[in-house]
Amino acid sequence: MNQIKFRPLRMEDAWFINNLRQQEDVERMIGGVIRPVSYERDLKWVEDLIMKDHQHMIYFAITPGSSDDIIGYTSISEIDYRNGTCFWSGIKVDPGQAGRGVGTEVALKVLKYVFEELRMVRCKAECLENHQAALNMMLKVGYRQEGLMRKTVYKNGAHNNQWLLSVISSEYEEIRSKFSL
């Protein structure tokens, strides 16, 4: 479980992020609007993430354990310190990394950070109803399905349902033990 690591985003990561956004097959499987984004806009976005002190969201570059080269990114948002809740906003990884356990390892590292560093009591996540790989990965690491949110995302020419999932702190202790985190 040490094939990846997290590091802060860097300005040079904007190139990778912009190229990843251009891959429609990736964009079709995640929430959010598919739209053209210029490299300059992504450069400014990355700069804002680096330079502004965002208290309610955190972005990590995902790198192979053996280098600092970015292979994807993940984020935690809606961080509510008062109530101890947050939203794992998802993961975007180079499609060449699919099926290698990267998503599972990212999900576990995010949970470890959320519960051990941020001291949250609940972490929620969402995925499109038909994104079976994402749903399976989240269930595998210990997320529990709370329900199906109907018609929450307009994507691929239709209004789509999304699964709402979560992990609470008592469940994290079981996950931590099971995966030796």
From TrEMBL:
The keyword Protein biosynthesis does not apply. One of its GO terms (molecular function) is acyltransferase activity, transferring groups other than amino-acyl groups. Residues 4-168 form the N-acetyltransferase domain. The keyword Transferase applies. Gene3D superfamilies: 3.40.630.30. InterPro entries: Acyl_CoA_acyltransferase, GNAT_dom. Pfam families: Acetyltransf_3. Keywords: Transferase. This is GNAT family N-acetyltransferase. It comes from Hufsiella ginkgonis.
